[in-house]
Amino acid sequence: MGINCLLLSIAGTPKILSDFIPDNGLAGLAAALVKNGHSVKIVDYNSPSLFGSIILSPQQTALRRFAEKVFLQKKSPSLFDLYRLRRIDAALEQHKTRLWRDIAESLSRRVERDKIGMLGVKMWTGEGFVWSMEICKYLKREHPGLHIFAGGPQADIFGQKILEKMEFLDAVCVGEGEAVIVELANFVAGRAKLDNIPNLLFRRDGGIVKTERQHIADLNSLPLPIYSPDVYEGIESKLKMIVLDESR
Question: For residue 23, which of 43, 37, 50, 4 has the smallest C-alpha distance?
Fold first, then answer.
């Protein structure tokens, strides 16, 4: 019998085009879980609509006027302009904190309602890393039995340090994750041991255990990524682009 899983991605304030396209990595992980009998939903907050949630209408108007003056009219900003810009920045930071807290509370209700056993988190850099870790910290406090695993490019470099600092993470995956995430779900279901799962960092007896690094021998054996709206929630709001893994 499979477990119920959530895959979370939140990069903070959108900065680049790739924030808005379908996440091939998460879609591939979801496909691996579904293929092996687990239930999974992708919760991807990286969409153009996030701008409207972060920057409210009065702030948008003020920033537009500032940009027109400085970049279109080529006028130097006044001291009052700079003061107002600092006020907007402070207000934005406060609002962004409220936003990730609202997201954490929403996910907490969902964990309870849908009996989620495992949360997989994609780690971003900068603001996205802070947001996702704060959300994980909140969820672990509210649901101590929830297993939280993290992965992403940063794990290869900072995995051990992340695990040392983020006590609410149960393990960090380094390298390829399709086979790993299935075994992590099996671990949560009581059918596997962390010691036998490759590409993993986890805590034990005050130290950190690192399991054997393995690569997927046959990439053709992987299932196709899932982009169905019933699994990849909010896929309709993403920019419609075909994403290919051309190398690993």
Answer: 43
pTM exceeding the 0.85 threshold for the entire prediction: yes
Burial of 54 (0-12, 13-18, 19+ CB in 10 A): middle
Residues 6+ apart with CB under 8 A from 136: 119, 121, 148, 150, 166, 168, 169
pLDDT in tens, the chain (248 residues): 799 999 999 999 888 888 889 999 999 999 999 999 999 999 999 988 887 788 888 888 999 999 999 999 999 999 999 999 999 999 888 988 999 999 999 999 999 999 999 999 999 989 999 999 999 999 999 999 999 999 988 888 898 999 999 999 999 999 889 999 999 999 999 999 999 999 999 999 989 999 999 998 888 899 999 999 999 998 998 988 877 777 77
Angle at 22 between CA 20 and CA 27, to 5 degrees: 145
Q: List CB contacts of 100: < 8 A, sequence separation 6 or more.
A: 10, 131, 134, 135
CB 127 within 8 A of CB 10: no
Residue 57, both tokens = 């209408």
